[in-house]
């Protein structure tokens, strides 16, 4: 595919490559995406299940969905796409991964610099006393899980209606402005402010390389190179080619 060659040439010739990832990168690990025919939001209405006001109103109902998701996520393993980004970092060609995912699969694949734009499911906080728990220390069969003080635990993921963690927000936009290349993988680019990261990078002169099964709103507007296909197949090919180019 000539797009893979083009993407690899751009990455190999760049100093600051930043990756922005979304749910699509974890689909091949068995975690469903949110949008699209197989997406979680076809089964659950996001306004009813993913808005912070819904959680506050009826944590038990939202926790039933969360428990189902946790069961999938906690047994999922990184796939070749996560490992490819780790390898790109080892090659000095991925300064940071900004992820909208809360599954920690980039970290488990070995990526060292990961910014979790929508928080993490690895820790939970008591809504009453603020005590923090690791997910491994919480019994997810008790719905809703509670703190020793009796308060309901909420995963540290960003619900609709909640702010992006300030450090992640600031650092992501700083990186977008510094980037020579933004590698956008497996995101529908519909949820803001994450979806403005590619716009910010492009406005600051970065090339946009997109890897997705399907075109997105970015594809025919700001994307320079669109590599259509599964992230777990396309990314390892790009990285293998980058490695080859760096040797020559
Ligand atoms: N390889 C590459 N791309 C894929 C693959 C795959 N194997 N499978 C699916 N995709 C693409 C889809 O075509 C789609 O464009 O991944 C994208 C997934 O889009 P969304 O489900 O909308 O996920 P994301 O963009 O991460 O959603 C953003 O919305 O509700 C929220 O907070 C949640 O962080 C999430 C945010």
Describe this structure in words.
This protein has 248 residues and is an alpha/beta fold. It contains ten helices and nine strands. The strands form two sheets. The chain has a six-stranded parallel beta sheet with strand order 3-2-1-7-8-9, with helices on both faces. A three-stranded antiparallel beta sheet has the order 5-4-6, with no helix packed on it. Helix 1 crosses helix 10 and helix 6 (80-90) packs parallel to helix 10. The protein is elongated and about 60 Å long. The mean pLDDT is 97. The structure holds adenosine-5-diphosphoribose (APR).
Short structural summary:
The chain is built from ten helices and nine strands. It is of the alpha/beta class.
Write the layout of secondary structure elements.
Layout lengths: L1 H11 L4 E5 L18 H4 L2 H4 L2 H6 L1 H17 L4 H11 L5 E4 L5 H5 L4 E3 L2 E8 L5 E3 L18 E5 L8 H13 L2 E5 L10 H8 L3 E6 L12 E4 L2 H17 L1
Parallel strand pairs: 1-2, 1-7, 2-3, 7-8, 8-9
Antiparallel strand pairs: 4-5, 4-6
The site of adenosine-5-diphosphoribose has 26 residues, from strand 8.
Structural class determined from secondary elements = alpha/beta
Helix content: 25-40%
Strand content: 15-25%
From the structure provided, what is the oligomeric state, counting identical versus distinct chains?
Answer: single chain
How many helix segments?
10
Main beta sheet, described? Answer: 6 strands, parallel
Tell me the number of strands. 9
Main sheet: strand order = 3-2-1-7-8-9
Rg calculated over all Cα atoms: 18 Å
Separation, N- and C-terminal Cα atoms: 21 Å
The whole-number mean of residue pLDDT values reads 97
Based on Cα principal axes, name the global outline.
Answer: elongated
**Are there runs of 5+ residues with pLDDT below 50, and where?**
none
- What hetero molecules are bound to the protein chains? adenosine-5-diphosphoribose
């Amino acid at each position: 595919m000539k797009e893979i060659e083009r993407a690899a040439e751009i990455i190999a010739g760049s100093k600051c490559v930043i990756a922005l990832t979304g749910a699509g990168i974890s689909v091949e690990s068995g975690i469903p995406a949110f949008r699209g025919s197989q997406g979680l939001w076809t089964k659950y209405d996001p306004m009813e299940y993913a808005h912070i006001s819904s959680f506050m109103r009826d944590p038990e109902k939202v926790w039933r969905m969360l428990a189902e998701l946790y069961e999938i996520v906690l047994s999922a393993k990184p796939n070749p796409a996560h490992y490819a980004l780790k390898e790109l970092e080892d090659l000095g060609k991925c300064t940071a991964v900004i992820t909208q995912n809360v599954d920690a699969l980039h970290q488990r694949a070995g990526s060292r610099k990961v910014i979790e734009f929508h928080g993490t499911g690895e820790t939970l906080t008591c809504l009453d006393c603020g005590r923090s728990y690791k997910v491994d220390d919480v019994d997810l069969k008790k719905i809703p899980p509670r703190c020793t003080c009796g308060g309901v635990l909420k995963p540290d993921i960003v619900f609709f209606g909640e702010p992006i963690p300030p450090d992640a927000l600031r650092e992501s936009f700083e990186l977008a402005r510094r980037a020579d290349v933004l590698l956008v993988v497996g995101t529908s680019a519909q949820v803001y402010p994450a979806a403005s990261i590619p716009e910010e990078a492009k406005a600051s002169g970065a090339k946009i390389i997109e890897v997705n099964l399907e075109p997105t709103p970015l594809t025919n507007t700001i994307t320079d190179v669109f590599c259509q296909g599964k992230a777990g197949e396309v990314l390892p090919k790009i990285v293998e080619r980058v490695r080859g180019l760096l040797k020559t």
